[in-house]
Design brief:
single chain, 349 residues, alpha+beta
Length: 349
């Protein structure tokens, strides 16, 4: 009997040890749109800290940051645009452009809830392809031979290899970015090797200051680094933001966000929206000129749940514009369609 009891005990231990551990994750059921909790194999779920940066508190998900001193976090932005233009005779012209801005953030110190960071400007690459010809301006490659590209390369090369100081709190609010004057001086010196006219050189630097300054970068990082509203959202909840698509503010791009899931150490957000189709008409005598435009976007943004840092963004944007001139008897149209991919940290899927 003892042997039988021992054998039974060994069997029960074996059964327990063979039972696969499971974990529960929360996600949105695509069929019903409702939030459900499902069990998955524990080894398929990445380990998340007990107190992660993006966490669930009584069903409300909030986004904070838990970055480590001495660590570097990437933020590479990439955009690819493919444009097709069709003339009134049906002839098409295609062109493709790509741009990459590579940067990273190193955490130097943490004081209270403030991160002292170095913003590393690593590299810039631009390319354009049209009618079978491609031109590339890449700061990691030698200066182009084409005269009209040398200025762009010099400015981009002077911009990269620099470091700015940034302070950001654990809520993702960028407090300050400093160190621009040294960059402006470097760009001015680089331009001076190609442009001797003082006014022209000053004009180039002034133009740079308009597009590369503390306000512009703060707006960019506040928009890229945090998406979830400060009040927090529930899994499956939708929220909306809009920004001006033209200087007058009369046209706005709307972005609709939904927190799709929180699990496997990833917070995933879906993005839809754009600019609804709009047609403007102007008449001058018998001639009517109309312009219709529409923008549609969709994609996903992923954040590391433990740190709060953005791991990947992949958004597709399609813009369609049709320009028509009519005299009431006949009309001619010019159509332009642009398909864009807007990515952040594209190598991290």
């Amino acid at each position: 009997m003892k042997n039988i009891a021992a054998l039974a005990l060994i069997s029960s231990i074996a059964l327990v040890s063979c039972k696969k551990e499971t974990a529960t994750i929360t996600k949105v059921d695509p069929k019903t749109g409702k939030t459900v909790t499902v069990e998955v194999p524990a080894d398929s779920v990445a380990k998340v800290e007990e107190n992660p940066a993006i966490k669930d508190s009584a069903g409300i998900i909030k986004h904070t940051f838990k970055l480590e001193k001495g660590k570097t976090y990437p933020l590479t932005t990439y955009q690819r645009d493919t444009k097709t233009m069709t003339d009134p005779q049906g002839k098409t012209l295609n062109g493709t452009s790509e741009s990459t801005d590579e940067m990273s953030f190193t955490v130097n110190d943490i004081k209270g809830n403030i991160y002292d960071m170095t913003l590393n400007l690593i590299g810039k690459r631009n390319s354009q392809t049209s009618q079978g010809k491609t031109i590339i301006v890449d700061t990691k490659q030698p200066i182009p031979k084409e005269e009209d590209l040398k200025m762009i390369w010099n400015i981009n090369r002077a911009l990269t290899g620099n470091k700015l100081n940034m302070k950001m709190d654990t809520e993702g609010n960028v407090i300050s970015i400093t160190g621009f004057d040294a960059v402006y001086t470097k760009v001015s010196n680089a331009v001076g090797t190609l442009v001797k006219d003082a006014n022209q050189k000053a004009s180039v630097v002034a133009s740079l200051k308009e597009s590369f300054n503390e306000k512009v970068l703060k707006d960019q990082f506040n928009k890229n680094l945090t998406i979830i509203p400060k009040k927090g959202v529930k899994i499956g909840e939708k929220w909306t933001s809009s920004e001006n698509a033209d200087p007058s503010g009369s046209v706005k791009v709307t972005s609709n966000y939904v927190l799709k899931s929180l699990g496997n150490n990833i917070a995933e957000i879906s993005v839809t929206g754009g600019i609804p189709k709009k047609t403007e008409k102007k008449a001058q005598g018998p001639i009517t000129h109309s312009l219709s435009s529409e923008l549609v976007q969709n994609g996903t943004i992923k954040f590391d749940q433990s740190t709060g840092w953005i791991t990947n963004q992949n958004i597709s944007v399609k813009t369609t514009q049709i320009e028509t001139i009519s005299d009431g008897k006949q009309s001619q149209s010019m159509k332009s369609v642009s398909n864009s991919s807007v990515m952040v940290n594209p190598s991290a899927k």
